[in-house]
Amino acid sequence: MTESIIRLKRGEGRAFKAGGPWIYDNEIGEILGDPADGDIVRLEDYNGYPLGVGFLNRASTIAVRLLSRDADAVIDAAFLEKRVRDAWSYRKRVVDTSACRVIFGEADFLPGLVVDKFADVLVAESLALGIDRLKQTILDILVRVLAEDGIAVRGVYERSDAKVRLKEGMERFKGFLTAPFDPVVEITENGVRYLVDVAEGQKTGFFLDQKYNRLAIRPLAQGGRVLDCFTHTGAFALNAAMGGAAEVIGVDASQLGVDQAAKNAALNDLSDRARFVCEDVFDLLPRLEKQGEKFDLVILDPPAFTKSRSSVKKAVTGYREINLRGIKLVKNGGFLATCSCSHFMTPELLEKTIQEAARDARRRLRQVEFRTQAPDHPILWGAGESYYLKFYIFQVVDEQ
After folding, report:
1. Is the pTM for the entire model greater than 0.85?
2. Could you tell me which of 79, 5, 108, 20 has the C-alpha nearest to residue 385?
3. Any bridge partners for residue 68, and if so which?
4. Domain 77-183 carries which CATH code?
């Protein structure tokens, strides 16, 4: 049991008590003991009622991140091993583990830590001070647990270079946590081969959360013309080509991404049907509209236009614009796949924004399906931050 205690103000911690994983700095009434930032502390309600154990960081707005609701929990190697084993056991049951997210922060009860597995390489992202201190122990355990299933980890790379670390009073970092290795790793997902650059690619190198959403668009692409916007390294585009599309155009503002997408197309012998251009989607879509271009399937997979509540209004403008332009480019009876990966863009707000875009385009949308992130990114109910990806497929029809 830890000695230092964080006691809440009376009436505070409502989100936490409803299942949330965090205590905010303005909810703390007093600190008993002399804990350093990053230390493990006990949580108590204003009246001394035990609430759990977590990490303290007074440098962050998120002052405490929960590790366990058992106030007597001992955070030692055995505790961490159980968390790791639980996370890996879950993935083996719900997802193809050749490339998957093995640890998803708060949703796996290891707050602030993400670990992705790309074939025989692990990529870690540490976003909280407390978990940063336990990171190496957790990774050592994970390597050992994977070895028990015959998976020999070739190396571990850290991609803790997100700006959010600065809010935790931490420096940004990326680099090898093991002996250096070739950071370009080949993976196979849904039968498509990709070269993943874990050192220079976005985030940890590849967006695993769209795994089964990419598969879902294949039937809609068959025999058609497809436009994949914000293609990154070509994942949706190549799934469309694998689904039998006659022509696929992938667009991204990153030349690095476009070059990687072209290599991935060649790797799968799809260069004859999938081509990639480096251009700003917001500039390209109006031009394609003026040229009278039409597509059987338009895919919109933009980056998060907002990472805070304060910029949601601006983000809505961006989502409305790309959906308006995308809808106009779909043939009558064709399909639109559109999504948001921002937690702050709620399903209700995204739905309203897409509906407004369709109205302005004078087109009707028939929802085919609604999907979310792949199951290796589990959504922990009560912890809304773990639910972020919203993915819609619509048929687009003219006004009847």
Report:
1. yes
2. 20
3. 53
4. 3.30.750.80
Indicate the pLDDT class of residue 2, thresholds 50, 70 and 90.
low
Contacts of 268 (CB under 8 A, 6+ apart): 192, 193, 238, 241, 242
Same fold, 5-68 and 77-183: no
Q: Where are the domains of the chain?
A: 5-68, 77-183, 207-398
Give the Cα separation of 18 and 234 in Å (integer): 40
Q: Is the sign of the CA dihedral 384, 118, 239, 302 positive or negative?
A: positive
How big is the CA angle at 310 (ends 307 and 311), to the nearest 5 degrees? 60
CATH number, domain 207-398: 3.40.50.150
Q: Is the separation of the CB atoms in 251 and 281 below 8 Å?
A: yes
Using left for φ > 0, alpha for ψ between -120 and 50, and beta otherwise, residue 163 falls in alpha
Q: Specify burial of residue 185 (Cβ count, 10 A radius: 0-12, 13-18, 19+).
A: buried
Contact by Cβ (8 Å): 291, 283 = no
Tell me the CATH number for domain 5-68.
Answer: 2.30.130.10
Cα torsion 338, 340, 345, 348 to 10°: value is 30
CB neighbours (10 Å) of residue 210? 25
**Which amino acids are annotated catalytic?**
341
CA 368 from chain centre, in angstroms, equals 23
Separation between Cα atoms, residue 225 and residue 330, nearest integer Å:
10
pLDDT digits 0-9 by tens, 103-119: 999 999 999 999 999 99
Q: Give residue-wise pLDDT tens across range 242-273.
A: 999 999 999 999 999 999 999 999 999 999 99
Tokens of 27: 């909810």
How much helix, strand and coil, in percent to the nearest 5, is found in the chain? 35, 30, 35
The dihedral built from the CA positions of residue 47, 52, 53 and 58, taken in this order, carries a sign that is negative
How far apart are alpha carbons 24 and 198 in whole angstroms?
33
pLDDT, tens only, 226-247? 999 999 999 999 999 999 999 9
